[in-house]
C-alpha cells in the first residue's frame, strides 16, 4: 500500500497536495468503519490506496485515482469521492494492549460514570453521581494494590518465608527465612517485598501518562465556550480533560503507594504497641499511621474536589498537586520501609497480616457506594423519565457493582492461586484472608443463576424464532418454499433480538452479586473461619455443600484469572485473537477516562478531533458537499464529530449511518448523552440524516426519534437476505449479512444519492493571505 503523505495547500490537511480550489459540485464521502477495524483497501474496494493525512495510528486514505479529485471535479460521474478514516490501530493494533484485560474492572467502572440518567436542572445531583463513581473507582485501585500486597507481602514474605516448612520448598526464599541472615527479620522481608506492589503502581502510572500523551492529548477543533445543546458531547472541552485526568492519576497513584505503605508499616506498628515494646518505636508508629491517614484524607479530598469541566478546554494540569501528592506518598512508603526494617529482637511472623480487615472494609465501602449511587440514579431518572433507558436509569449502579465484582474475583483469584502454589495442600501456612474464601464460595451459586438465565434466553430465542417464521413468509411472499431457509432467517432475527434482553441479564446478575457479596461479608465477619470450618458442626449435607462450594469456587476463581492471563498472552502472538480483544476495547473505551485514570485509553479523544479537523478543513478549502458515512461504532464517532462541528460547517454535512447502535445501545445505556433529546438535536443540527438497519442485525437498529421526525431518519428495515432463493439478479444463494456489508444493498447508494441532492453546494469565501484554519 502506498503511504505517501499529502497535506492541503495551506498545510492543514484539507485537500491533497497540489489540489487547487474545487468547484461547488465537489462531493466527498468520508467513511468511518466500525468495531474490529478493517483495511483501507477493503473500505475503498481498491488495492491501490494513498494516505491523504494522518500517521500509522490513524489516518485518512483515498484511492490512488482519486488523489487529485478536487482539481477535476467534473471527471467523476459515479458519485462522491470516497475517503476512508481508519482508526483500528487506536484499539487493536498493538499486541501488548491485550494485557489491558487485567484492567477490565477499571474500564467497567469508567463506563458507569457515563451511564447516568439524563437530568435537567439537577447539577448538584449530577455532581454527586460523578463523585460516587470516582470514589468507587478509587476503591478498585486500592483493591488491586491490596491484592498485590496480599500476594507479595502476606503470603510470600510474611507467611511462607517465615515458615521453615514452606520456605524450605522454595529455594529462592531461603535468604528471607528467619535463619537466612539480615533479611530474615519480618520487617525487612516486608520492606523488600513492597517493591512488587510499588513497581505495579509505577507501571500503572507510566502507562496512564504515556497513553494520555500518545492518544488523548489531541487538541479539539474548538468552539464557543458555552453549552450549545442537550448533550455534553457538543461542548468544546468534552474530548479534552487534561486537568481531571492528571488530578485523578496523581490521586490514584498516591492511594496505591499509601496502601503499600500501610501494609508494610501496620504490622510493625502493631508489634510495637504490645506491652514491653520500645516506647520510641511505638510513638514513631503512631506518627507514621497518622501521616498515612492524613495522606488518605488528602487523596479522597482531591478525588471529591473536582469533576469534569466540559464547557471549556481543561488544560490546566495543577502541576504542584500532580507532582506533590505522589511524591509525598512515596516518601511515606520509604519511611514505612525504614521503620519496619528497624531491628526488633524477638519479633516473629505468625498468622496473617490484617488482610481480613482491609478486604472487609473495601467490600463494605463498595457495597454502600453502589447502594447510594443507585439512590442518586433513581432520583435523576424520576426527574426526567426515559422509558427506553436501561433498567430505568439504574444501569450505572449495576455496572459499577459488576466492576467491583470483577475486581474481587481477580484479586481473589490471584491470592488463591498463589497460596496453592506456595503451600499446596500441606496447610503449613494460614493462607489468604477468610473473606476471599467466602467470596469464592458464592461463585458457584452465581454461576448457577447465570446458567438459568442462559436457559431462559435460549427458550426466548426459540419462541421468537417460531414467531418470526410467519414474518419471513409475509416478507418473501410466494417464495418461502424451503422450510430450512425460512428457519435460518427466522433464527438469525431471533438471536439479533436477544440484544434487547441485555438489561434484564445485567439487573439479575448485579442484584445477585450484591446479595451474595453481603452474605459472604456477613459470614466472614460473624465466624472468622472459612465456610467449611464454620459448617463443621452442622448437618452433614450442609457441611458437604459448604466444602463443595468452597473448593469449587476456589478453583473457578483461579481458573478464571488464569484464562484471562492466557487469553491476553495468546492475543500477544495471535492476530485474530488480538482483533477480538480489540473489538471489546472499541466498545468499552469510547468514553474519556473520567472515573478511573488507569483504565485503557479513550480512542475517541484522538478519533473525534481527527474527524472534525478533516471535515472542517476540507469543507473550508473546497466549499463542497460531504456525506459522513459511519458503520456500527463508526456511526457513534460520526455523531460525536458532527456535534463538535461549528454550525457553518454542519450546513454542508449530511449524516449516513448503518448498522448503528446510536439508539439501541448508546441511547438506552447512556441516556444523558445519547437519549431522545440528544439524537433529536443532532437531527436538527445536521442538514439531513438517514439511518439504515436490518432486523437480522444484533447491534444496529432504528434511531426512533420522537415526534414526526423519526420516519425522516429511519428507512424501513432492509431486506436480509436480499433474495430468498435463486433469482436472475442472485443466481447463487444470497447470504444473510446481519451486521456487515451494508454497501451491498442497493438502498445504500440510493440513500447516499438523496443525501447529496439535499445538500446545497456553496462556494467558499476567499481566504486572505496568512489566514489560519478553522477556529481552535
From TrEMBL:
UniProt keyword Membrane present: yes
Compositional bias per record (Gly residues), positions renumbered to this chain: 10-23
Name the UniProt record assigns to this protein: Integral membrane protein
Assigned keywords, A-Z: Membrane, Transmembrane, Transmembrane helix
Native source organism of the sequence: Streptomyces gancidicus BKS 13-15
SUPFAM superfamilies: alpha/beta-Hydrolases
InterPro entries: AB_hydrolase_fold
Region (Disordered): 1-46
Tree of life domain: Bacteria
Transmembrane segments: 98-116, 128-148, 190-209, 250-269, 281-303, 324-342, 362-381, 393-415, 435-458, 505-528, 548-568
Keyword Transmembrane helix: yes
Signal peptide (from-to): none
Amino acid at each position: 500500500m502506498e503511504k505517501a503523505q499529502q497535506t492541503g495547500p495551506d498545510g492543514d490537511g484539507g485537500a491533497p497536495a497540489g489540489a487547487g480550489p474545487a468547484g461547488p459540485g465537489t462531493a466527498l464521502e468520508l467513511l468511518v468503519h466500525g468495531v474490529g477495524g478493517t483495511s483501507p483497501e477493503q473500505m475503498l474496494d481498491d488495492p491501490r490506496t494513498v494516505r491523504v493525512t494522518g500517521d500509522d495510528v490513524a489516518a485518512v486514505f483515498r484511492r490512488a485515482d482519486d488523489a487529485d479529485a478536487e482539481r477535476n471535479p467534473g471527471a467523476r460521474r459515479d458519485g462522491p469521492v470516497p475517503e476512508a478514516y481508519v482508526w483500528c490501530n487506536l484499539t487493536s493494533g498493538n499486541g501488548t494492549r491485550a494485557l489491558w484485560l487485567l484492567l477490565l474492572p477499571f474500564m467497567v467502572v469508567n463506563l458507569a460514570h457515563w451511564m447516568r440518567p439524563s437530568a435537567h436542572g439537577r447539577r448538584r445531583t449530577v455532581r454527586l453521581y460523578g463523585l460516587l463513581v470516582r470514589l468507587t473507582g478509587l476503591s478498585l485501585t486500592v483493591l488491586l494494590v491490596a491484592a498485590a500486597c496480599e500476594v507479595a507481602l502476606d503470603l510470600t514474605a510474611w507467611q511462607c518465608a517465615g515458615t521453615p516448612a514452606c520456605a524450605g520448598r522454595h529455594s529462592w526464599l531461603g535468604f528471607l527465612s528467619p535463619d537466612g541472615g539480615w533479611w530474615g527479620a519480618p520487617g525487612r522481608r516486608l520492606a523488600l517485598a513492597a517493591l512488587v506492589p510499588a513497581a505495579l503502581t509505577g507501571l500503572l502510572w507510566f502507562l496512564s501518562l504515556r497513553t494520555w500523551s500518545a492518544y488523548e492529548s489531541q487538541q479539539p477543533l474548538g468552539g464557543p465556550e458555552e453549552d450549545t445543546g442537550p448533550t455534553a458531547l457538543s461542548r468544546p472541552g468534552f474530548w479534552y480533560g487534561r486537568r481531571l485526568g492528571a488530578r485523578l492519576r496523581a490521586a490514584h497513584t498516591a492511594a496505591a503507594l499509601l496502601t503499600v505503605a500501610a501494609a508494610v508499616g501496620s504490622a510493625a506498628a502493631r508489634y510495637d504497641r504490645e506491652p514491653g515494646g520500645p516506647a520510641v518505636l511505638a510513638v514513631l508508629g503512631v506518627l507514621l499511621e497518622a501521616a498515612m491517614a492524613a495522606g488518605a484524607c488528602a487523596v479522597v479530598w482531591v478525588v471529591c474536589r473536582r469533576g469534569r469541566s466540559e464547557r471549556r478546554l481543561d488544560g490546566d494540569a495543577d502541576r504542584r498537586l500532580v507532582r506533590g501528592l505522589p511524591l509525598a506518598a512515596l516518601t511515606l512508603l520509604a519511611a514505612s520501609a525504614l521503620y519496619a526494617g528497624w531491628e526488633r529482637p524477638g519479633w516473629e511472623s505468625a498468622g496473617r497480616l490484617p488482610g481480613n480487615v482491609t478486604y472487609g472494609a473495601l467490600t463494605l465501602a463498595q457495597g454502600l457506594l453502589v447502594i447510594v449511587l443507585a439512590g442518586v440514579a433513581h432520583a435523576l431518572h424520576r426527574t426526567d423519565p426515559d422509558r427506553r433507558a436501561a433498567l430505568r436509569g439504574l444501569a450505572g449502579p449495576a455496572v459499577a457493582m459488576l466492576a467491583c465484582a470483577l475486581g474481587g474475583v481477580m484479586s481473589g483469584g490471584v491470592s488463591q492461586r498463589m497460596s496453592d502454589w506456595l503451600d499446596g495442600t500441606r496447610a503449613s501456612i494460614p493462607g489468604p484472608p477468610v473473606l476471599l474464601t467466602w467470596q469464592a464460595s458464592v461463585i458457584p451459586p452465581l454461576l448457577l443463576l447465570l446458567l438459568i438465565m442462559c436457559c431462559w434466553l435460549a427458550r426466548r430465542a426459540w419462541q421468537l424464532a417460531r414467531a418470526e417464521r410467519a414474518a419471513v413468509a409475509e416478507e418473501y411472499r410466494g417464495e418461502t418454499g424451503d422450510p430450512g431457509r425460512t428457519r435460518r432467517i427466522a433464527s438469525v432475527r431471533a438471536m439479533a433480538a436477544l440484544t434487547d434482553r441485555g438489561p434484564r441479564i445485567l439487573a439479575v446478575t448485579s442484584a445477585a452479586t450484591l446479595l451474595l457479596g453481603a452474605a459472604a461479608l456477613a459470614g466472614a465477619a460473624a465466624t472468622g473461619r472459612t465456610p467449611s470450618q464454620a459448617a463443621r458442626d452442622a448437618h452433614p449435607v450442609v457441611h458437604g455443600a459448604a466444602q463443595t462450594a468452597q473448593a469449587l469456587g476456589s478453583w473457578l476463581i483461579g481458573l478464571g484469572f488464569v484464562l484471562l492471563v492466557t487469553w491476553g498472552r495468546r492475543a500477544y502472538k495471535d492476530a485474530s485473537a488480538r482483533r477480538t480483544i480489540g473489538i471489546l476495547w472499541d466498545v468499552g473505551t469510547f468514553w474519556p477516562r473520567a472515573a478511573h485514570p488507569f483504565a485503557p485509553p479513550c480512542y475517541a479523544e484522538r478519533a473525534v478531533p481527527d474527524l472534525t479537523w478533516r471535515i472542517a478543513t476540507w469543507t473550508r478549502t473546497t466549499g463542497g458537499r460531504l456525506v459522513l458515512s459511519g458503520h456500527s461504532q463508526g456511526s457513534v464517532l460520526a455523531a460525536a464529530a458532527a456535534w463538535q462541528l461549528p454550525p457553518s460547517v454542519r450546513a454542508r454535512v449530511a449524516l449516513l449511518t448503518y448498522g448503528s447502535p446510536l439508539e439501541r445501545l448508546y441511547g438506552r445505556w447512556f441516556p444523558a448523552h445519547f437519549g431522545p433529546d440528544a439524537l433529536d438535536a443532532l437531527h436538527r443540527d445536521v442538514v439531513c440524516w438517514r439511518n439504515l438497519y436490518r432486523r437480522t442485525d444484533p447491534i444496529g437498529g432504528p434511531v426512533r426519534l420522537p415526534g414526526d421526525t423519526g420516519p425522516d431518519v429511519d428507512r424501513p428495515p432492509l431486506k436480509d437476505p436480499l433474495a430468498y432463493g435463486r433469482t436472475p439478479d442472485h443466481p447463487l444463494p444470497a447470504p444473510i449479512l446481519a451486521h456487515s456489508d451494508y454497501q451491498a444493498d442497493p438502498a445504500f447508494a440510493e440513500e447516499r444519492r438523496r443525501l447529496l441532492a439535499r445538500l446545497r453546494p456553496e462556494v467558499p469565501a476567499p481566504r486572505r493571505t496568512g489566514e489560519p484554519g478553522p477556529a481552535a
